[in-house]
């Protein structure tokens, strides 16, 4: 895998480090995905999350039923109306996830050096020496000496809420393990991860299909997070399934890379998927610790040059219980931005963490600081070099718009788009200023009724670094007369002024279609 060195601008003045951060309408160009759960489902908290910078809400179906998630989503819609901030919806599949079933929900204490049996017989009560699991093929998949991790959402094998086991023997369908660290497991469900072991279960389970075809279709999900993606075929299969589910043919698929198998097929998966989620929790267990950063840098580089959004997970675990991240975590968030991440995904930190709003705010501030020292010049040259010549028509327009915006120190790039592709291409070159993506709705019909497209395209740019969407009035077509284009531009500029992105005498770069031609123009604003 090809990697790239840290894209950091030199030199940084020490005095500038002490300057207070300035608040702005867009807290950061890097997006934040928040996982919604018990601690983040009231209208009040969700409004706080949106104001703090969350632009994508993730619904994790590994736990709780669709009714519970529906309630949360209704509250999110109310929060969106209250705050007037757009938010996309991501459905996270369960996939071939192994789980320990603790029906009584009593805390289970496990002592180091003792033994515990993992059994597929779910009729048993979970205890300190017997843990029922939801998979009967584990005994066939593992052998003596293999490593198994069990924990509630976060598991590192070193904290008190997760446990690290070593397989000592297999007895029929049961797996006998030696406990390597003392821990207490609490809750009804714990995730089980067998390190570097292939689990013979489908990537898109029957339960996942059921949830997608009911909850997903009803709520017109913007993104499908495909857990445990191992092959490009997994993405193709999921896309074929979505294509038969009403409006979900427009849903984007983000492949979640969680194990060695997915890593080995990364290039083919990237080609098929709309974006990538680097699930560093599970990957951190499958990979030796010293290799995790290498995978992150190489994978983000590949996503960047392909122009596909990359999302990094597990950055501020300690903020689940604490108001401040550790020094290592704060540095980790910044390095994810400098490595080229589009978005940061928060899991337990917002799902069951004590400080969901503060966590989003803190991560946003760290991202904004890292963006200030991101070496855009070097990044731009590398991207142009990678694309090569001759460039496609759209690629040439996108790179020219970014180059022009940087040269004239524009405060914003405004891009008129109907599919969202032009705006995403501009964002691929990582301009230092926000890209206002004006999505022009298109009229379509299924022979029974007329409807407008555009809402999907607008929300799907909420996961791309630097892209900020607004939906134009459908009465203004994308390729139209100069008069209607001017009126749409005026609406976009008014939006920019209201949000404080553009001020009098600022320069703005506009990218739009006029007839068959694509045009990049620079305008200077009057008083």
TrEMBL record:
Domain Pyruvate kinase barrel: 30-360
Reported cofactor(s): K(+)
Origin superkingdom: Eukaryota
Organism whose genome encodes this protein: Gossypium australe
Catalysis: reaction(s): pyruvate + ATP = phosphoenolpyruvate + ADP + H(+)
Matching SUPFAM superfamilies: Phosphoenolpyruvate/pyruvate domain, PK beta-barrel domain-like, PK C-terminal domain-like
The enzyme's E.C. designation: 2.7.1.40
Annotated protein name in UniProt: Pyruvate kinase
GO molecular function, one term: potassium ion binding
Keywords: ATP-binding, Glycolysis, Kinase, Magnesium, Metal-binding, Nucleotide-binding, Pyruvate, Transferase
Top EC class, one word: transferase
Positions of transmembrane segments: none
